[in-house]
Amino acid sequence: MVNDGAGAGTGGNELDLEEIEATLRADLEKISAEIGELTKPPEAGASIGFGKRIGEGTTEAIDRFTSVGVANDLQAIRVRTERALEKIGEGTYGVCDSCGKQIPAGRLKVAPASALCVECAQAKP
Q1: Which CATH code fits 10-123?
Q2: What pLDDT sits at residue 72?
Q3: How many CA atoms lie within 13 A of 91 on its CB side?
Q4: Predicted structure pTM score
Q5: What sign for the dihedral angle of Cα 36, 38, 41, 43?
Q6: Which of 21, 25, 44 is nearest to 33 (CA)?
Q7: In the predicted model, what is the mean pLDDT of the chain?
């Protein structure tokens, strides 16, 4: 177990930063692949459009809008994951980006990409 002094091991609950980093990198790879799949251009000859009747083109267009929305959500997760990896590299993993207080080890175990403590995450609009 590693306690880098940055608060990742507060309360005697030390975190294994190497394991967390490996998990975050695997998550980042998976997220990036999903985003790539969701945002790839339609196959040649695929018609996407809206007509007067619900048809295959309309269904494909709606599916595409849904995929783009999911990709946007995944992009936000990717940004949080990249930030957590940066924090590990900086030696600040476990410190809230907003208030500077220690993030409890329990929160980091459940949500390793957390860069905010619970209070700051709840206050964020």
Answers
A1: 1.20.120.910
A2: 85
A3: 2
A4: 0.70
A5: positive
A6: 25
A7: 81
